[in-house]
Amino acid sequence: MEVFRPYGFDKPLFLVILILISSGLVMVFSSSAILASEKFAQPFYYFFNQLMGVVLGLAFILVMLTIRKPFYQNTQFIYGILGLTFILLILSLVMPALGTTNRWIHFYGLRFQPSELAKISLVLFIAHYLDKKKESLREFKTLLIPLAVIFSAVLLIIIEPDYGTAILLFIICTITLFVGGVKFAYFLFFGTASSALFIFYLLKASYRMNRVFAFLSPDSDPLGNGFQIIQSKLAVGSGGLLGVSIGESTQKLFFLPCAHTDYIYAIIGEELGLIGALSILLLFGIFLWRGLVISWKAPDAFCRIVAAGLTLAIFAQALLNISIVLGLGPPTGLPLPLISFGRSSLLCTLLSVGILLHISQRKEGSKKKR
Question: What is the pTM of this model?
Answer without folding.
Answer: 0.93
